[in-house]
């Protein structure tokens, strides 16, 4: 077989080593072929809205867990501070409840701002639960590969924290439904009177099973708050080792304040430190008639 002559005329190419030319066309330059082979495959642009794309990632879900956790922790603390008015008087806590329904005074119709806050809290609960469920699924998918690089001790510790958060979260959700039925809607409290949170709370916690359930639910809430407050900073990228001790103390202190404060209510009722005061009196924000007569 004869050798072929190169187009430049500078020599010959041995047979079988030259690039083949397709019939009726010219051969593509070798450099262009290499560039085409080396060009990366570009991913198709996502049609999701940017916040949705961020939320679909594990980092996005952790951020949502952290932000909604801060909002819910703020609500739990504010709720406790308001309920502590139980120890002042019936009029004080009932006026506090009425002020919540009337805020911000004449600027908005009655209960509009209150319902706005309630809807915001509901959304925070929904996103908190949804993000937690999504992260659980992501962790389950990644667990077989992760276990190969994890010591048995680390796995047990991480698994314990995860199980605690999951089950305490379920307990808190179930208790919240009962709590609303008991002290907000009234269909779980036979002696419920709308606008009288003082007597409603005492009537509810005079029932020993309710007091026990309330205390157990507060223990679950404290455990959830402790783990949540500790991991919240890590979820939002605040992980400097210098602040680990401060983070742990904050988580412990916050959970302890909520636990002691909330458990004090059923204990005080069961010990008769607070008693029913002028039941059925309307309006509930006025000083009890018997107190006025005694004065």
Instruction: State the assembly state of the protein chains.
Output: single chain
Strand order of the largest sheet: 1-2
How many separate structural domains? 1
Average predicted confidence as pLDDT: 81
**What is the straight-line distance between the termini?**
127 Å
SSE string, helices as H and strands as E: EEHHHHHHHHHH
| CATH class category | Mainly Alpha
The biggest sheet amounts to:
2 strands, antiparallel
Q: From the alpha carbons, calculate the radius of gyration and give it in angstroms.
A: 33 Å
Annotated CATH homologous superfamily: Fumarate reductase/succinate dehydrogenase, transmembrane subunit
Uncertain residue segments: 6-11, 153-159
Note the total helix count. Answer: 10
* Structural class estimated from helices and strands: mainly alpha
The total beta strand count reads 2
Strand content: under 5%
Can you give a write-up of this model?
The protein has 295 residues and is mostly helical. It has one domain: Up-down Bundle (3 helical TM bundles of succinate and fumarate reductases). It has 10 helices and 2 strands. The protein has helices at 30-38, 50-55, 58-83, 90-102, 112-147, 152-183, 197-205, 208-235, 244-270, 289-294; strands at residues 4-5, 12-13. The longest helix has 36 residues, at 112-147. The chain is globular. The N and C termini lie far apart (127 Å).
């Amino acid at each position: 077989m004869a050798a072929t002559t190169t187009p430049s005329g500078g020599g010959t190419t041995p047979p079988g080593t030259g690039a083949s030319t397709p019939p009726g066309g010219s051969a593509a330059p070798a450099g262009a072929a290499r560039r085409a082979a080396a060009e990366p495959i570009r991913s198709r642009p996502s049609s999701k809205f940017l916040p949705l794309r961020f939320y679909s990632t594990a980092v996005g879900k952790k951020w949502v867990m952290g932000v909604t956790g801060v909002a819910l922790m703020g609500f739990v603390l504010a709720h406790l501070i308001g309920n502590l008015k139980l120890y002042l008087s019936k009029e004080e806590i009932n006026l506090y409840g009425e002020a919540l329904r009337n805020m911000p005074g004449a600027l908005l119709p009655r209960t509009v701002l209150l319902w706005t806050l309630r809807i915001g809290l509901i959304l925070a609960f929904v996103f908190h639960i949804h993000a937690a469920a999504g992260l659980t699924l992501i962790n389950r998918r990644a667990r077989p590969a992760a276990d190969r690089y994890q010591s048995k001790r680390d796995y047990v510790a991480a698994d314990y924290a995860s199980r605690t958060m999951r089950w305490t979260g379920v307990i808190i959700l179930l208790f919240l439904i009962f709590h609303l039925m008991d002290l907000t809607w009234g269909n779980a409290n036979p002696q419920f009177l709308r606008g009288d949170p003082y007597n409603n709370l005492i009537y509810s916690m005079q029932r020993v099973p309710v007091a026990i359930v309330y205390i157990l639910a507060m223990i679950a809430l404290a455990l959830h708050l402790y783990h949540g407050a500790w991991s919240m900073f890590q979820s939002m990228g605040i992980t400097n080792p210098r602040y680990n001790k401060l983070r742990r103390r904050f988580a412990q202190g916050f959970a302890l304040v909520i636990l002691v404060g909330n458990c004090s209510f059923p204990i005080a009722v069961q010990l008769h430190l607070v008693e029913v005061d002028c039941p059925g009196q309307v309006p509930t924000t006025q000083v009890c008639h018997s107190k006025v007569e005694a004065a």
